[in-house]
Write a structure and sequence with these properties.
- By secondary structure, this protein is of the alpha+beta class.
- It has 2 domains: 125 residues, no CATH class; 31 residues.
- Helix content is 21%, strand content 33%.
- A 5-stranded mixed β-sheet has the order 2-3-4-5-6. Strands 1-7 form a two-stranded antiparallel ribbon.
- A hairpin with a 3-residue loop joins strand 3 and strand 4.
- The protein is elongated and about 70 Å long.
């Protein structure tokens, strides 16, 4: 990820205390990650880097919009996202212990920078809910494509028609009574 140098914090030259960084993340950022689900976005990530004597605390504040596809009607729309996350960075001289976990990143003492690009990528993705559906319009109607909703309602109604019930399901319904 040579092109993402702006997401590397050179901690060796920083004094003990809190340092602030701000990143404007757009579609160019996600091109560096294979299989990225986000192609379009306008996200601001504020980073509060707290340098302590023996470890670091990095707080991420994510706020913006990402272009997502509705799970119901499959049409794209801009979804507002926000989130706050904390990452602890600790030193380790044992290469076997350098495997990161969810809240702790381990680095070697010889590393001159902390690369937060992967953390920014992960935290933006974590802000997207599991189920993404168009929000309701200002007048209270569904925000999804009305033609698709019409088809879904018709299709669901056809499936509940008892005249064409699979005989296996009919046998199971008898057990319910």
């Amino acid at each position: 990820m040579k092109e993402l140098k702006e997401y590397q914090i050179p901690y060796t030259g920083l004094k003990v205390g809190i340092h602030r960084f701000e990143y404007d993340v757009d579609h160019r950022f996600f091109r560096h990650f294979e299989g990225a689900l986000i192609n379009e976005c306008n996200v601001k990530v504020k980073v509060e880097f707290e340098k302590k004597e023996t470890f670091f605390i990095i707080r991420f504040f994510v706020d913006g919009t990402v272009r997502v596809e509705c799970d119901r009607c499959l049409e794209p729309f801009d979804k507002e996202i926000f989130g706050d996350y904390v990452l602890y960075v600790k030193f380790s001289d044992d290469p076997a212990s350098l495997a990161d976990d969810d809240e702790v990143m381990y680095i070697c003492r010889e590393d001159p920078v902390i690369d937060i690009a992967q953390a920014v990528y992960d935290y933006i993705n974590l802000c997207i809910p599991i189920q993404v559906i168009h929000p309701k319009t200002a007048d209270g109607h569904e925000g999804c494509n009305p033609e698709v909703l019409k088809y879904l309602r018709t299709s669901a109604h056809e499936k509940t028609d008892d005249s064409e019930v699979d005989p296996r399901w009919a046998a199971l319904k008898k057990l319910k009574d």
